[in-house]
Amino acid sequence: MTTIKSDEICLVVPLSNQEAWDLAQFLKRVGYAEFRSNAVDDEEAYRMQEVAGKIRQALNQIGYAPR
């Protein structure tokens, strides 16, 4: 069981198998440049990239791990 800190949230998002696979593929392919082009500064881009990594890891743990 995961412990959620008071300053964190936990998302539950219903996805089809295809949607989960497509998101996992996207998160595998996206790089810092894409985050940076959509962020106000480097700090925000790194935070966005870190969150994407958390989502990618969660998808990986349930079997959505594109090679």
Describe this structure in words.
It is a single chain. The protein is an all-alpha fold and about 70 residues long. The protein has a domain at about 15-60. It is built from three helices and no strands. Helix 1 (about 15-30) crosses helix 3 (about 40-60). It starts with 16 loop residues before the first helix and ends in a 6-residue tail after the last helix. About 5% of the residues are buried.
How do the strands and helices of this protein lay out in sequence?
Blueprint: H1 17-29, H2 32-37, H3 42-61
Helix pairs in contact: 1-3
Largest sheet: none
> For the residues shown, what is the average pLDDT?
96
DSSP summary: helix tally: 3
Amino-to-carboxy terminus distance? 27 Å
Q: Which overall shape is indicated by the principal axes computed on the Cα atoms?
A: flat
Q: Regions with pLDDT < 50 over 5+ consecutive residues?
A: none
Number of strands: 0
Structural class per helix/strand content? mainly alpha
Radius of gyration, taken over Cα atoms and rounded to an integer in Å: 13 Å
The H-and-E topology, N to C, reads as HHH
Estimate the strand proportion: under 5%
Percent in helix: 55-70%
Pfam families: DUF7706
InterPro entries: DUF7706
